[in-house]
Amino acid sequence: MTTLTSHEPVSPSVEDVRLAKASSRRLALFLNQNLKVCIAETQEQVELPAVAVRLLIDLLSAMAEGNAVTLIPIHAELTTQQAADLLNVSRPFLVRQLEDGVIPYRKVGTHRRVLFSDLMEYRHKTDSKRHDALDELAAQAQELEMGY
């Protein structure tokens, strides 16, 4: 299991935002393609797989918007605070979800650890429920001719 320890979010500087905007636009032309990158100092070429190019474009696009970014391996284990931050909920709410069995976790000594993949599954389920409820509300509003 990979434990997330030093992967803190990185906030881009003003210059980083400018450069990320320009480079993400140029790289978008190569989406879903392998890409050879030339290292200026050594003229060495490095080939990037298409999936890495797509992730790089996503990363640069987020930075171009001024967002702090971080990479989290899919099998990473998160602390309860990291998991709560990722879901944008309070730590006590997350702990309640864990204790109620809504999200799986394991204990390391007295500390709870949550798999990133389990958090993403939880997020997907809650988002799906939220969308279903909104669709139902919209359907009811249309039936009642409320102007939606």
Characteristic key phrases:
148 residues, alpha+beta, two-stranded antiparallel sheet, 5 helices
Q: Helices and strands: which structural class?
A: alpha+beta
How many helical stretches? Answer: 5
Taking strands numbered 1, 2, ... along the chain, how are they ordered across the largest sheet? Answer: 1-4-6-5
Regions with little confidence, pLDDT below 50 for 5+ residues = 1-6
Level of helix content? 40-55%
| Percent of residues in β-strands | 5-15%
What is the makeup of the main sheet?
A: 4 strands, mixed
Give the overall form: extended
State the end-to-end distance: 48 Å
How confident is the prediction overall: mean pLDDT? Answer: 89
Over the alpha carbons, how many angstroms does the gyration radius reach? 21 Å
Structure write-up:
The termini are far apart. The chain is extended, with a radius of gyration of 21 Å. By secondary structure, it is an alpha+beta fold.
Summarize the model shown:
With 148 residues, the chain is α+β, with helices and mostly antiparallel strands.
Topology readout:
Blueprint lengths: L1 E2 L10 H14 L7 E4 L6 E4 L1 H15 L11 E3 L1 H8 L3 H9 L6 E3 L2 E5 H28 L5
Parallel strand pairs: 1-4
Antiparallel strand pairs: 2-3, 4-6, 5-6
